[in-house]
Every structure is written in C-alpha cells, then in structure tokens.
C-alpha cells in the first residue's frame, strides 16, 4: 500500500517544516509507504525535515526537458539535486487549468523515470464523460500513452470526486482500477475525497493499491489516520 498526500498550493516552507516534524512523530504503520507532495518552494524543507525517515518527498510536476527556455517549469535534475524522490504527473488540475495533454503527460513521465525519479501518473474521467458512458475509453486512452516501469504508479482520480466530498463507490474504484491494470499491470492508487472514514473500505478492494489524498492530507492527524487505515 502507498499513501501519498498531495498538498496542491498549500503550505509554504515554514508550514511544511512544521507538518513534517509532526509527521515524524506520528504513529505511522510500517507496512505502508508514505509520501508527501509539497509545492516546489517547500520541497527542500520537507526533504531536510524527513531525512532519515521512511517518508518520501515528491514534487507535484516535472518538465520533460532537462533544462531550457521554459519559464515557470522545473526539471528532473533540479528535483534530484534537492533530494526529491519522485513526482506526480498529469494531475487533473494540470490537465484542466494548465493545458496538460495525454502527450505532455507521457513526455513528462518518460523523462522523470529516465532521470531516476519515481512517478505517480494521474488519470480519471470527468463527470460528463462518466455520464456519457465513456469512463472505460477515457482511462484506456490516458493510460495507453504510458509505458510500464517498475518506478511508475498510476493514480485513478475521477475528476468529479476531487475536492467535492463525492467519493467513487468501492465498486466503481475497483472496476476503474481493473480497466487500468488491463492496459498496464501497475499499482493503482485511488484519489478523490479520500478521508479517514472512507479509506479502509476503498482500500479493501483488491485492485486498490493505496490512495492519493488531497484535502485530508493537509492535517497530520487525518493523514496519519488514512495511513493507518491502509495498513493490513
Ligand atoms: P481530494 O484531492 O482528496 O481533496 O479530493 C485529491 C487529489 O486531487 O489528489
């Protein structure tokens, strides 16, 4: 099981340091891999505070070129230099607001993996796509551009469940994860309004290999509770 906390645009370096100090002291299970994904400016504080622990630090995105004229972007070697372990790629907020496409996601994933970063690549259908019966086709298209890799994990995040309090039912998650695994046989995390009180049920599905948690990862106690819910 892997539990990753996606902080999005929350927590500057001071808050990140305080969170990571509290996380170091929290009661985390040994059989669950735990990852936090702070904003770029807080990565260094997180890496330093969590040094010597089992908690991994991931960025929230990573460019496909190693350097160049790409204002506002960050490359894999830069993340490496900071001691960052991996990166999210293709989050639906990147696809929705920042023009990310299946092709740019695939390029970012390829470069990050080639540069030795672990990657959590995010996929998921919108509400309109689910209602039109297109969930399967969308997932097959989004996952189909990626290649299997031992350092790659997929996160299934139905867009209608992100930050809305609406969670996919365990059966919906199981079905979507089976579709994804039929394209690429990789671990698949569920994301979308995961909370301490729904985590255990979602995680009990055989094809659910962990969770990508947004809002509920911003508080140490609720994040640690989700990590414990994922423990066998
Ligand atoms: P949420 O976000 O848990 O706040 O719904 C999940 C995500 O976007 O990764």
Structure description:
The chain has 232 residues and is α/β, with parallel strands linked by helices. Helices cover 41% and strands 16% of the residues. The protein has ten helices and eight strands. The protein has an eight-stranded parallel barrel with strand order 1-2-3-4-5-6-7-8, surrounded by six helices. Helix 1 runs parallel beside helix 2, helix 7 packs across helix 8 and helix 9 packs parallel to helix 10. The radius of gyration is 16 Å and the shape is globular. 45% of the residues are buried. The structure holds 2-phosphoglycolic acid. 2-phosphoglycolic acid binds next to strand 8.
Keywords:
alpha/beta; TIM Barrel; 232 residues; binds 2-phosphoglycolic acid; 8-stranded parallel β-barrel; globular; 10 helices
């Amino acid at each position: 099981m892997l539990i990753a906390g996606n902080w999005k645009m929350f927590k500057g370096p001071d808050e990140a340091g305080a969170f990571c100090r509290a996380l170091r002291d929290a009661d985390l299970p040994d059989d669950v891999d735990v990852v936090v994904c702070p904003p770029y400016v807080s990565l260094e504080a997180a890496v330093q505070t969590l040094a010597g622990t089992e908690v991994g630090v991931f960025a929230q995105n990573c460019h496909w070129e190693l350097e160049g004229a790409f204002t506002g972007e960050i490359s894999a070697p830069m993340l490496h230099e900071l001691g960052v372990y991996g990166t999210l790629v293709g989050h639906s907020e990147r696809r929705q607001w920042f023009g990310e496409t299946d092709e740019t996601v695939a390029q970012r994933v390829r470069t990050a993996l080639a540069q030795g970063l672990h990657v959590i690549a995010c996929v998921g259908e919108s509400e309109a796509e689910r209602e039109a019966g297109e969930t399967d086709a969308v997932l097959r298209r989004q996952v189909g551009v990626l290649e299997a890799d031992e350092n790659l994990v997929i996160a299934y995040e139905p867009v209608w469940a992100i930050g809305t309090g609406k969670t996919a039912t365990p059966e919906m998650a199981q079905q979507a994860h089976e579709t994804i695994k039929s394209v690429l046989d990789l671990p698949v995390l569920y994301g979308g309004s995961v909370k301490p009180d729904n985590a255990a049920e979602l995680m009990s599905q055989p094809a659910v290999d962990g969770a990508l948690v947004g809002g509920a990862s911003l508080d140490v106690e609720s994040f640690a509770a989700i990590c414990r819910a994922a423990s066998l």
